[in-house]
Amino acid sequence: MISIIKKIYLRIVYIFLKKQLSSSSGKFILFGKITIESPSNVILGKGVTLNDGVYISGHGEVVIEPYVSLSAGCKIITASLIPEKINKKSKENIHTSSPVYIGENSQIGAGAIILPGVTIGSNSIIGAGSVVTKNVPSGMIYAGNPAKFIRKINFSY
Questions:
Q1: What is the span of the domain harbouring residue 116?
Q2: Terminal-residue alpha carbon distance, the chain
Q3: Distance (Å, rounded) from C-alpha 39 to C-alpha 154?
Q4: Of the chain's two ends, which shows fewer C-beta atoms within 10 Å, N or C?
């Protein structure tokens, strides 16, 4: 009974979210509760998997290419502070935003954080709990805080 209720709930959330996302978004897969701020700035490619606890800050553009998996509790952040304006906090907006791009077939590990302005290349893996502060080339594994190169992926065909 609970399983059926959960499936119905997820379907309703999916339909509601799909209407709010960029019209360029494809059919994605939803597993659990997620949060997407400013969803009209977010493009989810076909087959993107969003697991429980995923948070996407869509203040800047977020493009997630097809077949990317976002594991439980990972975060994609597009907003940051302008340090030189911290003393003007009471008088003006001191925030800025930068886009985030994640290439197709990539895997973002549980609890990983992708910071503003980062591009993650296709077919890459970001380890659980990593904080990605710089671009990640295609076909690489990065992990740690800050995320560092672990190894290249040797694809078998």
A1: 2-152
A2: 43
A3: 35
A4: C
Alpha-carbon distance of 68 to 102, in angstroms, equals 8
Q: Please check whether residue 30 lies inside any domain of the structure.
A: yes
d(CA 55, CA 25): 17
Cα dist from 69 to 53, 57, 72, 95, 122, whole Å: 13, 17, 10, 29, 12
Q: Has residue 61 been placed in a domain?
A: yes
What's the structural domain count of the chain? 1
* pTM of the full structure: 0.89
3-state secondary structure at position 136: strand
Radius of gyration of the chain (CA): 16
Q: Is residue 16 part of a domain?
A: yes
Q: Comparing C-alpha atoms, which of 20, 50, 25 is closest to residue 38? A: 20
Going residue by residue through the chain (157 aa), what tens digit of pLDDT does each one get?
Answer: 568 877 787 777 778 788 788 888 888 988 888 999 999 999 999 999 999 999 999 899 999 999 999 999 999 999 988 888 888 777 878 788 999 999 999 999 999 999 999 999 999 999 999 999 999 999 999 999 999 999 999 987 7
The per-residue pLDDT for 1 is 58
> Residue 123's domain is classified under what CATH number?
2.160.10.10
Closest CA to 30 of 15, 41, 19, 20: 15
